[in-house]
TrEMBL record:
UniProt protein name: NtaA/DmoA family FMN-dependent monooxygenase
Keyword Oxidoreductase attributed: yes
Domain Luciferase-like: 21-392
A Gene Ontology molecular function term of the record: monooxygenase activity
Length: 454
């Protein structure tokens, strides 16, 4: 059976994806940027807009990282405002489970789901570093196994809060406009080794019942967490072989949790460069990569893996002869670049092999491993590549990350989407009212028993 392609848009966080030197590059804080980006995604019939969130500006060598000085507006505030200027587009926000509390987050997402008439989504993430924890009363950080344990229990608690209202617990008084509820509606009493809370949840059941749940972990714990509870998982595997392997692994975990393959969507992040011809697109992509990775940026990325001061290293020379320094105390504060590599020295060996095979300088190597675009070509070429990967079970669709904000989606929507529609693999209108319906996910009804994640 031919699969339908799902598309979403990521408003880029502060990183080297955005080509800041391009005159078309706009603000990442002004609301007009968010509005144009969201409305273009909706014009392209995308499923949702995704906002990342960082809870602290990044540092390197004790100074604010040069790609992070623009700041990070509050996710809920932006998404709530976008609910008023869009009608169908899903609104997905990354919210941390390590330093927030379940009642607060559940209340915020239930409110967003009401305000947007059923378009809210939550990307459940954890935070690994003490640097971020210094912003919060709890401080510190949690080891990986404890982070995922807290995340599981955090999500379990939030689901209990959302499910504390039955679908028929609330009715509208048509005369006064008041909400009327049963006395026991919203009652909850939750105790585990992370949370001990009780009371009444203050927001009635929202249009989706619960927001759509996203998860982005690639570790064993992250994959199992997603298979147990997530509606969609963000993947970094956008090429065919790695994508198929990841797809098969995660989808294969679903039956053990009583779930079907169609209950979880796998959506890799993907960058793109379009041209009138494939050759022109390749030339543009080369220029984009050079703009994304300056010599200074190359050294910054190198330091994040090597975990040592390399400010005197020549970006146009070979990789350092010394090995990376492993450990949790990294030079790049607030970034998981070192932490996500279980063995930095092994990654460095891989980089040396790639550099030697291509006779690459440090900067050229960093461009190769960090700055490559997922899709490069004419609109028809890119549309066919996207469709091919979806039909081959390498993904269920893609979350597009343009290198220009806010206008970077325009050409994709105007040129690539019509080809996907012509191929018969992409919608010509939104299927439903809620994000859950447009993603093809079943309705979330109230659980009769508390959710337990192993």
């Amino acid at each position: 059976m031919t699969k339908q392609v799902h598309l979403a848009a990521h408003f880029p966080g502060v990183n080297n994806t955005t080509v800041w030197s391009d005159p078309n590059s706009g603000s990442h804080i002004e609301f007009d940027s968010f509005t144009r980006f969201a409305q273009t995604a909706e014009r392209g019939l995308f499923d949702f807009l995704f906002l990342a969130e960082g809870l602290r500006l990044r540092e390197q060598h004790g100074e604010i990282y040069d790609l992070d000085v623009v700041g990070r507006p509050d996710t809920f505030t932006v998404l709530a405002a976008l609910a008023a200027v869009t009608e169908h587009l899903g609104l997905a926000g990354t919210i941390n489970s390590t330093f927030n509390e379940p009642f607060e987050v559940a209340r915020q997402f239930a409110t967003l789901d009401h305000l947007s008439d059923g378009r809210a989504a939550w990307n459940v993430v954890t935070s690994w570093d003490e640097f971020t924890g210094q912003n919060f009363r709890r401080g510190g950080f949690l080891p990986q196994d404890q982070r995922y344990r807290r995340a599981r229990q955090f999500l379990e608690t939030a689901i209990e809060l959302w499910d504390s209202w039955l679908d028929d617990d609330v009715s509208a008084d048509k005369v006064t406009g008041r909400f009327l509820r049963r006395d026991d509606a919203g009652a909850f009493d939750h105790v585990d080794d992370q949370f001990a809370i009780s009371g009444h949840f203050s927001v009635p059941r929202s249009p989706q019942g619960r927001p759509v749940i996203f998860q982005a972990g690639d570790s064993e714990e992250g994959r199992e967490f997603a298979a147990a509870r997530a509606d969609a998982i963000f993947s970094r595997h956008s090429d065919r072989d790695a994508g198929r392997a990841f797809y098969a692994d995660v989808k294969g975990r679903l039956p053990s949790h009583g779930r079907r393959r169609e209950d979880l969507l796998i959506l890799p992040a993907a960058t793109f460069v379009l041209g009138d011809t494939d050759a022109e697109a390749a030339d543009i992509a080369h220029e984009v990569r050079l703009a994304q990775v300056s010599g200074q940026t190359a050294i910054a990325f190198l330091e994040q893996l090597w975990n040592r001061d390399l400010s005197d290293h020549d970006p146009d020379g070979p990789l350092p002869e010394v090995d990376p320094i492993p450990g949790e105390n990294t030079v790049a504060k607030g970034r998981a670049s070192v932490r996500i590599h279980r063995d930095p020295r092994d990654v460095a060996a891989q980089w040396r092999h790639i550099a030697a095979a291509g006779n690459l300088t440090t900067r050229e190597l960093i461009i190769e491993v960090t700055g490559r675009q997922s899709f490069v070509g004419s609109a028809e070429t890119v549309a066919r590549e996207i469709d091919d990967l979806v039909q081959a079970d390498a993904s269920d669709g893609f979350i597009l990350v343009p290198h220009i904000t806010p206008g970077g989606l325009d050409r994709f929507v105007d040129e690539v989407v019509p080809y996907l529609q012509e191929f018969g693999v992409y919608r010509t209108e939104y299927e439903g009212r809620t994000l859950r319906e447009n993603l093809g996910l079943g309705a979330r009804r109230r659980s009769n028993t508390p959710v337990r994640l192993a």
